[in-house]
Design a protein that fits this description.
Blueprint (H helix, E strand, L loop, with lengths): L1 H17 L5 H8 L3 H13 L12 H4 L4 E9 L8 H8 L4 E6 L6 E7 L2 H12 L5 E8 L5 E2 L2 E2 L14
Length: 167
């Protein structure tokens, strides 16, 4: 029974990943269980920190609040006995940091940051990030336009590409 419940919880997570605004009743119908069971599983998933946060994807440019985003490649020197984790923890605590990933390849960490202006993001990199002991180098890439985010196309321009046909 536990395996079946785990499979249903995984399916529940997939459904939420597609559309987190579905009601318990809608989710229950798709899973073939009761809404009470869905509510119980959601609470368990939250308590176990498997379901961390449900968040909308907002087209901030259209909303008139267009912050500057940047992807920063960071090379670091791992610390003895804690590796990359201690430095990563220092970095992800900054409010400007939106995402932080340990990477394979040419750099160690990928950091995405946001700020009100290009100058604010540059200031963050030069005064806060690059000055941390153990940070060897940074390379900053500013986001010029968002086409797709979290699997969602931000603005589909297909309709705009068609030619107007007149008689």
């Amino acid at each position: 029974m536990e395996e079946k419940a785990m499979a249903l919880k995984q399916e529940l997570l997939k459904l939420l990943d597609q559309d987190f605004q579905q009601t318990h009743d809608q989710l229950a119908r798709q899973l073939g269980v009761s809404a009470a069971e869905v509510a119980k599983w959601l609470k368990e998933l939250e308590n176990d920190r498997i379901l961390v946060k449900c968040q909308p994807i907002i087209n901030w440019e259209k909303a008139g609040l267009d912050d500057v985003s940047a992807l920063i490649e960071v090379k670091i020197t791992p610390q003895r006995e804690v590796g990359f984790d201690a430095l990563a923890a220092r970095i992800y605590r900054f409010p400007e940091v939106r995402n932080l990933y340990l990477m394979s390849g040419a750099y160690d960490l990928a950091v995405t940051v946001e700020g009100p202006t290009l100058k604010d993001v540059a200031q963050f990199v030069s005064t806060k990030l690059a000055t941390i002991d153990g940070v060897v180098s940074t390379t900053t890439h500013f986001v010029l336009k968002k086409y797709k985010e979290e699997g969602v196309i931000i603005e589909d321009e297909e309709a705009d590409r068609r030619l107007l046909v007149t008689p």
